[in-house]
Hints:
This protein is mainly beta and 84 residues long. It is 5% helix and 24% strand. The chain has a domain at 13-67. It has a three-stranded antiparallel beta sheet, with no helix packed on it. The model is unreliable at 70-78 (pLDDT under 50).
Amino acid sequence: MPEPWADDGGLRREPVLDHDYAPPRVVRFVGWARCLRCRRPFFSEDVVRLRMCTGAVGGCRESDERFADGLTGGNYSGDRRAGG
Ligand SMILES: [Zn+2]
């Protein structure tokens, strides 16, 4: 998995490959995202599915696990909004 890099506002996305497949398959992308809830930037290990900040202290995902699952349901249409 790629090492986290400095906050670039979400410009850079690095694929994570699953080497169980041949050729290796991209299973997710890591990169900087902005928390849906507190709006803080955070390094997401899956920018598609993990949309709230994580962390040992004060991560929104921990405090509201309703959002931890089902994020890829059909209701998220604002995903491609540019800027931030
Ligand atoms: Zn947050």
